[in-house]
Amino acid sequence: MNPVRAFWRFLTGRFPAPRYLAYVVLWPAGILGALAPLRPPGAAVGPGVAEQVCGALAVFVILFFMRAVDEVKDLDYDREFNPDRPLVTGETEVAAVRVYLAGSAVAAVALSAVVGAAAVVGAVLIMAYSLFLLLLERVSERFRESVWGNIVITIQLKTGLVCYVALLPRSGDAGTPALPTALVVLSFVLAYLHWEIARKTVRARFALPGEKLYSTARGAAWSLGVAVALLLAACALRVAVALGPDAAEVRPAALAVLAVPLALVLRGVLGFRGHGEARRTAGGPAFAAYLAFLAAGAVQPALMGGAPAWFG
Question: What is the pTM of this model?
């Protein structure tokens, strides 16, 4: 197969660009919007349009890099549970994936260079950590088999990406206070974890032997309860930061928008409980709740008094 066509089939099959581009637009908007009320009055507008666009594209490329690494890392597991994956079917070779990794790494660094030196360092560290996880998967049976232990280590990739986006305002000399910024970063990591755990929670009688699920160890009720608690904590952190002394004037609507992801979580729990006779996860409503959480951050500056524009 023509190499360009092979790459395109891999990209559209394992990394559907329209879906990820929409996510990558909403994700920085949500994070930067949640941080905007923390910037001091009269702060310089930033990041600029070029930094914002290149930063979002860099996140998109880094996500592709991580997806390609996961295809290699999960190859043995996919042979049993996902036989249609391109590396399993032979449609894509591991050697080709290495080329994709090299190309995406160069692109991520080049795009990050527009943002600034800190972004370049952040991109390199995130991609290096992703490769470290690939090595760890191969040498550590405990890492491979412990789903909950695995997520504690792998979630640091998402933490790194959230921090990458959180650095963007500093390119406009409009840094935010350290502690509230860290709490905002943590809230977005917890919201992502909510979705990650909910989508891999299945009742024990529907789980396949050897399938890696968060519900395997202690049951679906416990796993789903953890997922719900994570989003509740994420929303609570956002409320605490919005009401803190470093934030701009709070309007009720700025907090009310967080009721949307909470309502979607409730819907997911009720839907899961109401479909006990078929294999089901709460992944769909959990992803909708996660997107609503991002959207709440994106609109937050418009709902608060005195918050400067979040990008130039």
Answer: 0.89
